[in-house]
Specification:
The complex is a heterotrimer of chains A (428), B (398) and C (543). With 428 residues, chain A is α/β, with parallel strands linked by helices. Chain A has two domains: 219 residues, 3-Layer(aba) Sandwich (Rossmann fold); 162 residues, Response regulator (Rossmann fold), CATH 3.40.50. Chain A is built from 13 helices and 19 strands. In chain A, strands 7-6-8-9-10-14-15 form a seven-stranded mixed sheet, with helices on both faces. Chain A is globular. Chain B has 398 residues and is an all-alpha fold. Chain B has one domain. Chain B contains 17 helices and four strands. In chain B, the strands form two sheets. In chain B, strands 1-4 form a two-stranded antiparallel ribbon. A two-stranded antiparallel sheet of chain B has the order 2-3. Chain C is mostly helical and 543 residues long. Chain C has three domains: 138 residues, no CATH class; 72 residues, no CATH class; 295 residues, ABC transporter involved in vitamin B12 uptake, BtuC, CATH 1.10.3470. Chain C is 67% helix and 6% strand. Chain C has 20 helices and seven strands. Chain C has a five-stranded antiparallel sheet. Chain C has a two-stranded antiparallel sheet with strand order 6-7. Chain C starts with a helix and ends in a 14-residue tail after the last helix. Classes of the chains: A alpha/beta (428), B mainly alpha (398), C mainly alpha (543). Chains in contact: A-B, A-C, B-C. The interface between A and C is large, with 57 and 61 residues.
Chain lengths: 428, 398, 543
């Protein structure tokens, strides 16, 4: 821990004089970092905290923003969901940060949401998620289901001619929603009910013997079978190990995953995984100058040659840079101004092409399908023609097919019903 | 029946107890009331730029701490006074919380993102067609409160009745309570249960028609919480100081002997366990509107263990110790997570180790010793300590 | 797909045109030379690579086998400058050792900038596998031949059948011959119009467990156009027989799954059975002892990158020492001061577990660590097409039993064991008899923690090695010990296995979560019935 930072925060905490903190706030632009540094989610979120710190450093080296230096305020919500709300309130009212980068799990975002809306804060959420949300105060830089799941299924259907589907997921809202969407999508594409198998397992499930054996039997029916996996982080290692050991190879039954990236692979013996697939908006292995620079910068910042980059990091990178651009465009860090300035902002992806922030606070990004290689990296085997615009509300769920989000005048609503022409609920 | 008699007796002495000058009681009640009232006034009446202004953040934080203090008292009553170490009190807390959460969820009505007047949002997007039966009536405040007490109360009764009747004691009981809360956690994680799965219940709008995000509502919630904490404290103190309380302590210290003296010890234990579970449930009910979310994580066995740690830090067998412990540990947690996010677990872990090893009676023990020294009373603690946990019957009191 | 089939088809025709019986290796390329094809490989697109593989098989036949194998393993590279095709072995130090694809000649070290990988994807991999199968059918080992025939069962076209016939004529026996007969029967059932022949074919297929057989019979039974009722009835009967056998092996598989889960529970709980069961210390840091063992495995693998195969063998004693010494430290530093306050050990050890978790996070980073599975732990023992036993689970099952046996021997036969039992039964009396109880306490706690560390080595092969590893096992461990009866090792064994088997037999019908919940609720009710577990400790020590 940085001694200076510690002293500064102790000084603040002691609540020295109100004046000094006002002066401090005037001199710097504060960037809140709300990622778990302990508890179950620390494994994924610590990286994102470091990414934000790296971006802040970089921005400061470029001279800061609006002539002010940026200052990162890091707190630890400790993978405790109510604590996320409390820490968000602390960041917004006590530290008076201008923007928050944070959250990973859906539940943490749901916990923070009422707080940022009440206090009119600004948050960037960098992880792929189930969609079905659009808040005035949140920008979603990760993928929504139509930017990850649906392209992946398209690829499996068209290129690998898959006819039988296993939708395996951890029992929480992201897999549930994604699988609901995929089920509707597959049925619309003419897949029969008996050719879809859905299975849910608890968090951190480690005994996959039975389920893998079921998948094997399901796949032995003579039709090309694939597994669409929304299995959450930690449970993946034992899952792939069991697949490998039971002799299910990627050629027989490929598994396409939405939560397995470079970082997850760095903790796995990738031998048995080679050839399985993942769908993301970014892969470390994609050749581009920006990406090469970013990877080098990250390795240097973290001081470890072996550290990898991943999709949520790119989402943080894009989010941060878009915010910086929007602040410069608006000439202030005031939330309402920045929020309006954000819409339409463009920033180059690390993988080439331009990401654009849409009216629904979601990004337009390219989608890639990669095959896992034995070095823990991905080989891109397929990509969308251009960028795909993120959908806040899925067209394949009966509850949300008429909803859109549009934060520009005159609609200015996160859940606008196109049929009834009304903004349901949440009248701000 | 003797239990009920004793309870009636106990309640009649409640008023008397409030005036009774007891060690570490009046001052605690006083401080709690003064501090929360002052904070409330400072939040509502002072302008935000006044140096004495108390932010809403602090108000909700205080409210949360007090809910935890209440939960700690619930654990202390069964553990400190009756020797039942429950590692699953989080279950009752969370069940109470879910009861309140369901009410708040129904209050959202058609203001949810999908505008469905009956179904909560999480049900709409997972294609639920109608409200499950156990959600009916939860839009009525009184009914929700009733259920939020009935369910944990019944669970505690059934569990206690089964366990104490077959004389499951000590570590077995502790592990069973842990299994209970763990099983409930797994169950509530399931989306099929209809409680929102991992995401739980959140995005509440208002309670009894009052906007939950308004400062006045928050202050009111804090005041209600303080009032209930004080009430629970006084009621519990009355119980433990009554004849009933003496029997309970006797059960803790020598259950077999108490039984031989003709007391149906299991009855005392069951009712005390139910009483404690109800306190935990009330704490849960107050917690949810203040933090704005309830999810299955509250059932996690680790949470319940943490509550036990608060009590141990404060000093078990003393009600004010439980309150002080809960407030202090949680305040430390809040400070540490902001001050040294990478290392706060070291500090927290070390605190637990040091307290258990060097302060077996917690801070209350330290305080007690200090007052003893101040009044230059002869140190009788060592001779009186008949039990290995450093508590003696004579010293029990609030 | 059609294009691919077409390609394979043409390749096969060329193959069949070759004089049967003569080894392909000796045949000189007809038309195109393998070398000229090879020259096109560097930089070819994935699609083009597929075509080139076909041409290579056609031109080089069995000679190209090493190339295909290297390619399948993803080790085929080319030197950027000279376009020379080489095989690359990657080392731990991220250097690249080159070797000749066809010979064994070493070509020295390369840097990542000098070489480029020849990319393969799933489609190419399956094409390569099919190609290798065709080559192996005639030239490979028994095992390779079997694999080749099995692969062809799914796609019994004429060229595959002709290959199979060729293979049979060249003389195969045993399993391979049976499979080829089976393939012939399947074709006969499909193509023949004569009832007797088809019935005869069904006779051969009846009771065979290969999925292709089942699928064909199922299709026949479901086929509304099938007029031959006798054939259909026979097929149904054959199918029933297959289902019956599958059902049987399914139960067997379920049992193995249960035992395997049980062995994991046993491993996790066995150390606790000592610290908790014998000493009465409620060790919430037990899970972290397991975690330390798993991290030790990781460190050992980092220290000896060349000896992955033996890493686990080295890790077992190392993990025992590491976790054991941490255990002794905890006992001497903390638990000693809590003598006779068993419930309070929960709090102290809970604090220790937080410290250990955060320590691991600070030292190793919060990320999961990569523990490599040695090759002898990978794969499975295939007993028949529907029943196989994975090696890692099998070894861990055996390992758990071995640890258990060793522990029983230590406690029953060694002087430490005698002292441990004496102290746990009557501390004061043991002390009066001259037993150094303090020493024994430290050793017992060290032993329990050490065993937990050893369990960590085994678990590192099944699950994530990360700071949260311990937490996921702590509750299960307590359940097992309490269910079995505190202070009774045999109880832990029986408890672990029965919980495991119960869980796995409930799982198919109600899903993993509900099965877990039901087992927990059952456990709570069981303890009400028998408050001291399956095997209660008797005598005065119990109270």
């Amino acid at each position: 821990m940085n001694v200076k930072k510690m002293i500064a925060s102790i000084a603040l905490a002691a609540g020295t004089s109100v004046i000094s903190s006002v002066v401090l706030a005037a001199e710097t632009i504060k960037v809140g970092v709300l990622h778990s540094l302990s508890g179950t989610m620390a494994i994924s979120e610590t990286t994102l905290k470091d990414t934000v710190l790296m971006m802040v450093d970089e921005q400061n080296r470029k001279g800061g923003l609006l002539g002010k230096k940026l200052e990162a305020v890091v707190v630890d919500p400790a993978s405790d969901w109510p604590l996320f709300a409390e820490k968000a309130r602390e960041l917004l009212t006590k530290e008076e940060v201008d923007v928050i980068f944070g959250c990973w799990t859906s539940v943490s975002r749901k916990s923070v949401l009422p707080v940022v809306e009440e206090l009119n804060g600004l948050m960037f959420y960098p992880v792929q998620y189930e969609g079905e949300e659009s808040s005035k105060n949140v920008f979603y830089t990760g993928a929504s289901p139509n930017q990850q799941a649906i392209p992946a299924v398209d690829y499996l259907m068209s290129d690998l001619e898959v006819e039988r589907w296993v939708l395996a997921g951890t029992d929480y809202v992201y897999p549930r929603t994604t699988n609901k969407i995929l089920e509707a999508y597959l049925k619309a594409a003419g897949v029969a009910e008996e050719d879809i198998m859905i299975s849910y397992t608890p968090f951190g499930h480690s005994d996959w013997q039975g389920i893998v054996s079921d998948i094997k039997k399901f796949g032995g029916a003579g039709k090309k079978t694939a597994v669409v996996s929304t299995i959450n982080g930690d449970a993946n290692v034992p899952f792939y190990k069991e697949l490998g050991n039971q002799g299910v190879s990627s050629e027989d039954i490929p598994v396409v995953a939405f939560s397995v990236g470079e970082e997850e692979l760095s903790g796995i013996d990738t031998g048995p995984l080679v050839g399985h697939l993942a769908a993301w908006n970014y892969f470390q292995g994609i050749d581009s100058e920006a990406n090469e620079y970013f990877v080098e910068q990250w390795k240097a910042f973290i001081g470890d040659e072996k550290r990898v980059t991943n999709d949520p990091m790119e989402a943080t990178y894009i989010g941060f840079n878009m915010w910086a651009k929007a602040v410069e465009k608006a000439g202030t860090t005031e939330v309402d101004a920045v929020e309006q300035a954000m819409i339409g902002i463009e920033f180059p992806n690390l993988t080439g092409g331009i990401a654009k922030m849409n009216k629904n606070h979601h990004l337009s990004k390219p989608v890639f399908i990669g095959e896992i290689q034995d070095d823990g990296q991905f080989e891109v085997v397929w990509e969308t023609d251009g960028v795909v615009a993120g959908d806040a509300w899925s067209d394949f769920l009966p509850g949300s097919k008429d909803l859109i989000a549009d934060w520009t005048a005159p609609i200015k609503c996160g859940n606008y019903n196109t049929k009834s022409k009304a903004c349901s609920g949440q009248v701000q | 029946m003797s239990v009920l008699n004793s309870l009636a007796q106990a309640s009649s002495r409640l008023l008397a107890a409030m005036r009774q000058p007891g060690r570490g009681t009046s001052w605690l009640v006083g401080i709690l009331l003064v501090v929360t009232l002052a904070m409330s006034a400072a939040n509502l009446l002072l302008p935000a730029d006044s140096p004495f202004y108390v932010s809403t953040y602090t108000i909700t934080l205080m409210g949360k701490y007090l809910c935890f203090a209440m939960l700690a008292m619930a654990v202390d009553i069964v553990w400190g006074y009756c020797g039942i170490l429950s590692l699953g009190h989080g279950a009752f807390f969370a069940l109470g919380g879910y009861g309140m959460g369901m009410y708040l969820m129904r209050q959202i009505g058609d203001r949810g993102v999908y505008g469905n007047p009956d179904l909560p949002d999480f049900m709409v997007f997972l294609n639920w067609q109608e409200l499950p039966w156990y959600w009916f009536g939860m839009d009525q405040f009184w009914f929700a409160i009733f259920m939020a007490l009935l369910v944990p109360g019944t669970l505690a009764f059934v569990f206690g009745w089964l366990a104490f009747r077959s004389r499951v004691t000590g570590v077995y009981l502790s592990i069973m309570t842990q299994a209970l809360t763990y099983a409930l956690m797994l169950a509530f994680f399931r989306n099929e249960m209809g409680f929102g799965g991992n995401n739980g219940l959140t995005d509440f709008k208002d309670i009894l028609g009052f906007d939950l995000q308004a400062d006045a509502t928050r202050v009111a919630l804090l005041l209600v919480t303080t009032f209930l904490v004080v009430l629970t404290f006084l009621a519990s103190r009355t119980i433990v100081q009554s004849r009933l309380g003496r029997v309970i302590v006797a059960v803790r210290d020598a259950e077999a002997r108490t039984r031989f003296l003709g007391y149906r010890t299991e009855h005392y234990k069951v009712w005390l366990f139910v009483y404690s579970a109800l306190i935990a449930a009330v704490a849960g009910m107050l917690y949810v509107p203040q933090v704005g979310i309830i999810n299955p994580g509250e059932f996690s066995p680790l949470n319940s263990i943490e509550v036990v740690v608060w009590v141990a830090v404060g000093g078990r067998g003393t009600l004010y110790g439980a309150i002080v412990g809960a407030l202090l540990v949680n305040y430390a947690k809040t400070r540490f997570t902001a001050l040294m996010p990478d290392a706060w677990l070291f500090a927290l872990g070390a605190l637990f180790v040091i307290v258990t090893v060097y302060l077996p009676r917690g801070l209350a023990g330290l305080f007690g010793r200090a007052t003893e020294l101040m009044y230059r009373r002869p140190d009788t603690g060592k001779d009186k300590t008949t039990r290995d946990d450093g508590l003696s019957v004579a010293e029990v009191g609030a | 797909m059609n294009a691919l089939l077409h390609k394979l088809w043409s390749v096969a025709i060329v193959l069949l045109l070759l004089p049967t019986g003569s080894p392909l290796a000796q045949s000189e390329p007809a038309g195109i030379s393998a070398d000229s094809v090879l020259q096109q490989l560097p930089g070819a697109s994935l699609k083009k690579t597929g075509e080139l593989i076909g041409q290579l098989e056609q031109a080089g036949g069995a000679e190209m086998r090493p190339l295909f194998e290297v390619m399948l393993a993803g080790e085929l590279y080319f030197v950027k400058e000279s376009k020379q095709i080489i095989a690359i072995t990657k080392t731990e130090r991220r250097t690249y050792i080159g070797r000749d694809v066809f010979g064994k000649a070493a070509l020295g070290e390369f840097t990542s900038r000098e070489i480029k990988k020849i990319r393969v994807n799933n489609r190419l991999r399956s094409q390569l596998r099919e190609t290798l199968a065709r080559i192996d059918l005639l030239h490979g080992s028994k095992l390779a031949q079997k694999q080749a025939v099995l692969a062809m069962l799914d796609d019994l076209n004429d060229k595959n059948m002709r290959l199979l016939t060729t293979a049979q004529q060249s003389g195969v026996d045993g399993e391979v011959a049976r499979l080829i007969d089976l393939a012939a029967a399947m074709v006969q059932l499909r193509d023949s119009r004569v009832s007797e022949e088809r019935l005869e074919a069904i006779g051969v297929m009846s009771g065979q467990l290969e999925p292709a057989v089942r699928n064909q019979l199922q299709r026949l039974v479901n086929d509304a156009q099938e007029q031959d009722l006798a054939v259909r009835a026979a097929a149904q009967k054959a199918l029933d027989k297959i289902s019956e056998r599958i059902e049987f092996f399914g139960q067997l598989e379920q049992l193995f799954f249960g035992l395997s889960l049980g062995s994991v529970l046993l491993l996790a709980a066995i150390g606790l059975a000592i610290t908790f069961g014998v000493m009465g210390v409620i060790n919430m840091a037990h899970g972290e002892m397991i975690m330390l063992g798993a991290y030790t495995t990781y460190v050992i693998q980092q220290l000896f990158p060349g000896a992955i195969a033996y890493s686990l063998l080295i890790a077992v004693p190392a993990a025992f020492l590491v976790s054991g010494s941490v255990g002794v430290l905890i006992e001497r530093g903390v638990i000693r001061h809590l003598q006779g306050r068993p419930l309070e050990t929960i709090l102290a050890t809970f604090g220790i577990s937080l410290i250990l978790q955060q320590a691991v996070r600070s030292i190793f980073s919060p990320l999961n660590m990569q523990v490599v599975t040695p090759s002898w732990m990978s794969g499975s023992l295939v007993i028949n097409p529907v029943f196989s036993v994975t090696y890692n689970r099998l070894y861990i099952l055996l390992f758990a039993l071995a640890i258990f046996a060793a522990l029983v021997v230590v406690l029953k036969k060694s002087s430490l064991g005698l002292n441990v039992r004496a102290v746990s039964q009557n501390r004061d009396m043991a002390k009066a008899m001259g037993v150094r109880t303090e020493m024994v306490d430290a050793m017992t706690f060290g032993l329990g923690s050490g065993i937990a560390g050893v369990a960590g080595v085994a678990l590192s092969q099944l699950t994530n090695v990360g700071p949260n590893l311990g937490q996921s096992y702590i509750i299960d461990s307590f359940m097992v010990v309490v269910f079995g009866g505190v202070g009774n090792l045999l109880g832990t064994l029986v408890g672990g296995f029965s919980l495991g088997v119960a869980n796995k037999f409930l799982e198919p019908s109600m899903g993993a979560v509900l099965a877990n919940i039901i087992v927990l609720v059952g456990l709570i009710l069981f303890i009400q019935k028998r408050p001291k577990g399956l095997f209660p400790q008797r005598g005065r020590a119990a109270e």
